Amino acid sequence: MHSLTKTFLYHVLIASAALAMNVTSALASEDGGNIVFNQMLKCLKLPADAPSAYNFLIVAVIKDGSADFLSVNFRTPSEWEKTAAPLIADAITECEPYSSISGRMEFAVTRELIEAGSKN
Description:
The chain is of the alpha+beta class. The protein is globular and about 35 Å long.
């Protein structure tokens, strides 16, 4: 059961493609973000008919093993992405607890990362 104090937001990330790619590559290497991403994969069920490319930037604040705040950001709000964003947030909260980490985590969710992570 998740408390009602949790916050979930998703919105369009307004940035140039180059900036978004630089941010994504820098953030994807953070250990805490990798832990949350890998655990999220266990619960993630994305909608069918995924586009060939998508890119979400996730900001999660982990407190006492739980996702206390989540923001799912994306550049182009297609209908698929609007449907996928809350499913990503749900997967992050469903796969709690995150006992070994705390604080603010930032990481990317892309088709390539999902496919690579699903194979492990």
